[in-house]
Amino acid sequence: MTPIRIAITKGRLLDSSVAMFKRMGIECEALEKPGRRLILPLDGGRIEAVLAKGEDVVTYVDHGVCDMGIVGKDTLEEHPCGVFEVLDLGFGKCRMAVAGRPDSGFFSSGGERTAATKYDSIARAYFKQKGMDVRLIHISGSVELAPLLGLSDVIVDIVETGDTLRANGLEVLEEVCPLSARLIINPAAMKLRKSELDALTAKMEANLK
Amino acid sequence: MYTARDLFSGRREIMTAIERNISNCYKQRGYTEISTPMLEEFSMFSGSNTPLDSKRTFKLIDDGEIMVIRPDSTAPIGRIVATKISDQPLPLRLRYSQEVLIAGSDCTETSQCGIELIGADGIRADVELIETAVAALDAAGAEGFKIELGHAGIFRNLIKDIPLTKEDTERLRRAIEVKNTAEVNRVLDGYGGYETAAIRRLPRLFGGREVFAQARELILQPEAAEAVKYLESVYSMLEDIGCGEYIMADLALVNNMNYYTGVILGAYAEGSGERVLSGGRYDGLLEHYGKNLSATGFAVNLDALCRTLDREVKTVSDIMVWYAEGRAERAYSLSDELRRDGKTVELSTFESLEKSISTAKDKGIPCLIAIDSDERYLKNGVDF
Fold first, then answer.
1. Is residue B215 part of a domain?
2. Chain A partners within 8 Å of B274 (Cβ)
3. Are residues A188 and A160 in the same domain?
4. Do A82 and A110 fall within a single domain?
5. Do A162 and A105 belong together in one domain?
6. Chain A residue with minimum CA distance to B249
7. How far, in Å, CA of A209 to CA of B21, rounded?
8. How does pLDDT run across B224-235, given as a tens digit for each residue?
9. Pairing mode of beta strands B65-69, B58-62
10. Average pLDDT of B49-54?
11. A187: distance to nearest CA of chain B, Å?
């Protein structure tokens, strides 16, 4: 039997993914101590896990080299593709927000406005929907720096606790959308391996917190 | 951004071989070949007469006219049928094999090999088309492929009586397309009082024959139920003619819902995450060219299909023939004789036998025949 291959986003979603697998009764020692291996056998080899950055998780599943993936909604929104998004896994909860100085007057001013973000597509769609002309500046690291340096009026970014914002005198001005981890499935895999993938999905759904 | 696609070594050979097998399948079912121009007017791909977003066409300006490199073959064939060959007895069976170019971040040429069945509707036409799709993928050597069947009338009619805003219609369509049940529910929760149970379950209505039993219980809207019933009859007839193991149903196929009007089909094969075939009934297309003709068709994506095939192809000749001066006549007649036996025979272009031997060795040609005063058969690895 070919193992089901699942791509898991490294970082903050990994711990919650491991916890979920444990609740499902899937042994995942390999995930906790990956060592140098890149493809990790779980559940006695019935599942193979791959750890990757969110964007790459989407790419692997979109191209079908992984059957399933666990990825943040933010990554899915930023990189729209043909994968199925079958389950809100409920962990990794945070929000996409517009943040800036409380007195920025960003939403009331009519002048030229600038936003710095890692999420160009999400930001562009959001401001377009609001009918606002906003110049976007792409930043790939700490976006919070941009308004502090005077590069932009606001940022569009993921906000978890808001601590970083507060520490830098920034606050959430508007929420764009809530975010959480999602289970994605490749359409071909969904069609060709329906019963196996259905069973695993149902088991995940039964073990959400 | 355009990425060039160069096909060489064995890849082009494999694709050509597959294309030949598939085309032969179409030909033997009465489909005659047609080809369309590389450039078409932009207007052809800017309305609902194409399943494509007009943004994804590659545009050029010719004397002030916007032209596009064909992103699809169906609309051009529709134009040709309506304007040039509509007086021929119906139905028309047309086949094509040509490149298309879809602009965008992953813009690259794709070879499509497909058919259009024009002027025929009803179960006989739909079943024949799907059987041809099964035969084509089988002839191409696709492994473990499945053809999924849907119907454009299901979703369209299920939402007909709900006053969805344009934005919510698209949000709902997209959520169903990606099987995001939670999002489907979120959109529909705003429309209490309307019958939405069937739409909420739609993303899960895919699989084998059992899907129809579930759908009968759930889908009560009369026209949508009629579409399901029709699809089931198509499914049953395909089972009767021996295609059962290759088909499945997905009642939530909602892509290109403004284009397709009836049965929709798509296929996946083991070894690829992308569709290797897609198509469906598009009864409205010919109207754009002033002819009211029903039509259905599909295209095999040869590039995607090739990626699923783990196939080796021989690009090395079986035999090299070298001849000494004055022995050309014998060399050519012997080569022809060997070719008649199905061997691939290449003549050495070198005057020197040594150079021919070393070339045959480099290329991995297993046998060299040297024709001088006597004829010697030299075996690679033994004699050279």
1. yes
2. 63-64, 82, 188
3. no
4. no
5. yes
6. A191
7. 53
8. 999 999 999 999
9. antiparallel
10. 77
11. 7
Over residues B140-156, the pLDDT tens digits come to 999 899 999 999 999 99
Q: Is residue B172 part of a domain?
A: yes
Give the integer Cα–Cα distance in Å for B328 and B227.
70
Residue B269 distance to chain A (closest CA, Å): 7
What confidence tier does B271 reach under pLDDT thresholds 50, 70, 90?
Answer: confident
Closest CB to B268: pick one of A61, A185, A191: A191
Question: pLDDT tens-digit profile of A20-71?
Answer: 999 999 988 888 887 888 889 998 889 999 999 999 999 999 999 999 999 9
Paired strand residues for B138:
none
Q: Which residues of B, range 251-280, sit inside 8 Å of A by Cβ?
A: 268-270, 272-275
| B contacts of A83 (beta carbons < 8 Å) | 178
Q: Which residues of chain B neighbour A63 with C-beta distances below 8 Å?
A: 273-274
**Measured between CB atoms, which of A86, A188, A192 is closest to B274?**
A188
Do the chains contact at A64 and B180, CB–CB below 8 Å?
no
d(CA B266, CA B250): 10
CB atoms B180 and A86 under 8 Å: yes
State the average pLDDT over residues B350-361: 95
ipTM value for the complex? 0.75
Residue B367 is part of which domain span?
319-379
Looking at the structure, tell me whether residues B246 and B285 fall in a common domain. Answer: no
Residues B113 and B33 occupy one common structural domain:
yes
How many structural domains compose chain B?
3
Q: Where are the alpha helices (DSSP H) in B4-151?
A: 9-27, 74-84, 123-139
Chain A residues within an 8 Å CB radius of B146: 191-192
Whether residue A63 and residue B273 make contact (CB cut-off 8 A), yes or no, is yes
Alpha carbon distance A42, A126 (integer Å): 40
Above 90 in pLDDT, residue B87? no
Determine the residue of chain B that is closest to A62 in CA distance: B273
Q: CA of B341 to nearest chain A CA: how many angstroms apart?
A: 42
Is B2 a domain residue?
yes
**Tens of pLDDT along A98-136?**
999 988 888 887 778 999 999 999 999 999 988 888 999
B73 and B166 belong to one structural domain:
no
Which residues 6+ apart lie within 8 Å of A26 measured at CB?
A: A42, A43, A47
B209/B104 Cα distance (integer angstroms): 38
- At B164 the pLDDT is 93
The three-state secondary structure class of B173 is helix
